[in-house]
Structure formats: C-alpha cells, structure tokens
Amino acid sequence: MPLPKLAAALHGWIDRNFLELGRQMRLSYLPPLMVYVAAGISGLTGIVGVFYVKERLGLSAEFLAALGFWGGLPWALKMPLGHLVDLIWRWKALLVYLGATLIAVSLLIMIGLLDTSGAMHDAMLALMPVEAWYVLAALLAPVGYVVQDVVADAMTVEAVPHLDDQGQPVSDVQRRLMHTTMQTLGRVAIIGGTLIVAAMNVLLLDGVAALAEDQRAAAYRSIYELALLIPAVSVAGVILASWLRRRDSARLRRQGHSGPRSPRCSGAPSSVRRSIGGFSSAVSPLPQSRWPLA
C-alpha cells in the first residue's frame, strides 16, 4: 500500500476510534466521569500506606493478608449495593456524600497518625493504639469507594438523554451509541486517573528515602492531605449533576414538556450494562417514579 494511502487509513482509524470519542463528549457525561476520576486517583496513598506499615507498624504478614481480605470484601458486595441504589434512586446522591465522608475520615485518620507532634495524634492514641486506627482507616476507605462507584454506575444511565435539545426523542440507535460512549469514557477516566497517580507518586516520593524519619512522615502526610481532593471531586460531580437536572427540567418546561420524561428521567433500556469497576450487571427498566426530575 502506498505511504499516503496508509497514512490516510491510519488517520481515519484514529479519527473513528479516538477523536470521535471526544466529539461525542457531552456535559451531562461529566458528573459520573468526575466520580470515576476520583476512583482512578484513589491509589495516590497506596505506596505511602505500604511504607507506613513497613516503617511504623509491627503487623504480621498474616494480619495484613486478613486485612486485605476484609478490605476487598466491599467490592464483592457491589452488585447488591447496586440494587439498593435502584430502590432509593431519588436519594442516591446521599450515598456519594456518605462515601466521600468515609474516604475523608480514613484520610484524616492517617494524617493524624503521621502528625506525631500534633495534639490530634495524642488524642487519637488516648482512645486506641496506632494499629487499631490504621485498621479502621484501611476498612473505611474501600467502603467509601465502593459506595461511590455504585452510584457512578447509576449516574451513567442518567447521563444519556432521551430527548434532544429541541425536546424530540432520541432514537434507540443513537441512545445505544451514547451508552457505549459513556461507558468507554468511564474507563478512560479511571485509567487516566491511575496514570496521573503514578506520575504524582514518582514526583512526590522522589528522594524521600534519604530524609530523616520526621521529614519522611511530613512528606507522607502531605500526600494524604493532597488525597483529600478525592472526595471533593466526587461531591463536585454530584453537585454538577443536580444542577444539570434542574437546568434541563426548566428547559423542557419552557418547551412545553411535563412529567418525568426529561433527558435523564425515563427508564433505562435493559441493554445498558453496569460494567465499570470490575463487575457487570444489567440495568433493568425501572418504573418512572424512580427516575424523578429532581
């Protein structure tokens, strides 16, 4: 194949599979993507946590293996939690706030443990030993991430509109394409967040091994403080989703539409899959009463 034709074919393939994905991006996709980005950057404190256990705690390998089991158990419960989200659809945003709170509490516990000269550290040790606080932090974080991830899966259904900007129904073929785009962008958000975390860990931990013990603790603490952005991003996504719902509801009313048939309110097609995060379950059509305007 001549070189110009090969270059044109390659450009066409990149355009269809990558650039087109960006062109299909919609503002309504952003709220769940923000929650997925937060999941992607959740590994920011992973390396720091490993070094903290190595340098400060005397936990055995058997104990850490058991802790890893209990920390992974919430992810095994993701599908039943998805059903819970369907049952309390109107209030699902509260679960993101709950998850963000659990994540923030876990991070604040680690910040307190690393601030060995602070009053918070002394107050914590007066209640429980360091090992108990670490176990509590290690168990709270995965629960918070699972709760947020389940709600993000549900938000992807709402993100796909059923009416266009003129209030006309979107075709089934176009909606299926939008659902595929939404799920693909969700994967991109998670992977992108993971890559950002990898680069940040390389930069933030560069030269830490040569520091004195108190300086290393300060460096670790700064990473946990930076990680407080993770729950903030999730909460910002929910707030944005709420604002978009109100904006779209007002626009539809101006166009003469009423009832729950807003762009993100009617029942989801049974072909939609909740697949991001490692588990996949079909989203069955729900009664319209569970897909409210606000």
Description:
The protein is mainly α and 294 residues long. The chain has a single domain (29-290), classed as Growth Hormone, Chain: A, CATH 1.20.1250.20. It contains 11 helices and 2 strands. The chain has helices at residues 3-23, 30-40, 46-56, 61-76, 78-87, 92-114, 119-127, 130-159, 172-204, 213-227, 229-254, and strands spanning 273-274, 281-282. The N and C termini lie far apart (56 Å). Mean pLDDT is 81; it is low at 259-294.
Major sheet attributes: 2 strands, antiparallel
Q: Main sheet: which strands, in order across?
A: 1-2
How far apart lie the N and C ends?
Answer: 56 Å
Residue ranges: pLDDT <50 for 5 or more in a row?
259-294
So how many helices? 11
CATH topology (level 3) name: Growth Hormone, Chain: A
Given the helix and strand composition, which structural class is it? mainly alpha
Number of domains: 1
Radius of gyration: 22 Å
| Total beta strand runs | 2
What share of residues are in beta strands?
under 5%
**CATH superfamily heading:** MFS general substrate transporter like domains
Order of helical and strand elements: HHHHHHHHHHHEE
Short description:
The protein is mainly α and 294 residues long. It contains 11 helices and 2 strands.
Per-chain topology:
Blueprint: H1 3-23, H2 30-40, H3 46-56, H4 61-76, H5 78-87, H6 92-114, H7 119-127, H8 130-159, H9 172-204, H10 213-227, H11 229-254, E1 273-274, E2 281-282
Antiparallel strand pairs: 1-2
Helix pairs in contact: 2-8, 2-9, 2-11, 4-8, 5-8, 6-8, 6-10, 6-11
